Amino acid sequence: MSDRPAATRPLILAFDTSAAHCAAAVVSGGRILGQRDEAMARGQAERLIPLLEELLAETGHAWGDLDGLAVVTGPGNFTGLRLAVAAARGLSLGLGVPAVGVTVFEALADGSDGDLTVTLHDKRGTLRQRFRDGAPVAEPEAGPAEDAPASGERADLAVVARIALRRLDAAQPPSPLYLRPADATPSSETVPLLDEA
């Protein structure tokens, strides 16, 4: 780590590729120092690391300045979640800092009082999780579509970083939150056997 003043610590790099975007924020003490959000239906795998490097440079920081990583773990696009979680785990190992996974449900429920059910709608149905005073009281679940439009709820990266900061000391490697199987399915065609010569 660098000799940054204590006021700029802890420094968290939060990122999200759970949908058709590549988003990241550098956050210190709950304050966003810099943020990027690029819409993209594909290409996040090629764009994520360069975007993170650019964002760090824009805020006057380097990889070695980070105290932790925060990654949105879902629900969301199967490939996007795998990409973000793999990047977070790899960067965590390489930089020697903890990586914390935060779900969209947790980010939307953070700071709430009383009972709350966070409900997300997508083209395949409804996703929900129940919370009490911001803490989960049930596992997330997927259900059939309801009479509600698809909604684009996304996790605020400042909130994701704030949650991650609370968990840094006991961070476990992040894992994707999959509530449904992937849209892609293995081919049903039989693979031809090669003749041995």
UniProtKB/TrEMBL annotation:
<keyword id="KW-0808">Transferase</keyword>
<keyword id="KW-0012">Acyltransferase</keyword>
<dbReference type="InterPro" id="IPR022496">
    <property type="entry name" value="T6A_TsaB"/>
</dbReference>
<dbReference type="GO" id="GO:0002949">
    <property type="term" value="P:tRNA threonylcarbamoyladenosine modification"/>
</dbReference>
<dbReference type="GO" id="GO:0061711">
    <property type="term" value="F:tRNA N(6)-L-threonylcarbamoyladenine synthase activity"/>
</dbReference>
<dbReference type="InterPro" id="IPR000905">
    <property type="entry name" value="Gcp-like_dom"/>
</dbReference>
<feature type="region of interest" description="Disordered">
    <location>
        <begin position="173"/>
        <end position="197"/>
    </location>
</feature>
<protein>
    <submittedName>
        <fullName>N6-L-threonylcarbamoyladenine synthase</fullName>
        <ecNumber>2.3.1.234</ecNumber>
    </submittedName>
</protein>
<dbReference type="Pfam" id="PF00814">
    <property type="entry name" value="TsaD"/>
</dbReference>
<feature type="domain" description="Gcp-like">
    <location>
        <begin position="40"/>
        <end position="110"/>
    </location>
</feature>
<dbReference type="GO" id="GO:0005829">
    <property type="term" value="C:cytosol"/>
</dbReference>
<feature type="compositionally biased region" description="Low complexity">
    <location>
        <begin position="134"/>
        <end position="152"/>
    </location>
</feature>
<dbReference type="InterPro" id="IPR043129">
    <property type="entry name" value="ATPase_NBD"/>
</dbReference>
<feature type="region of interest" description="Disordered">
    <location>
        <begin position="131"/>
        <end position="153"/>
    </location>
</feature>
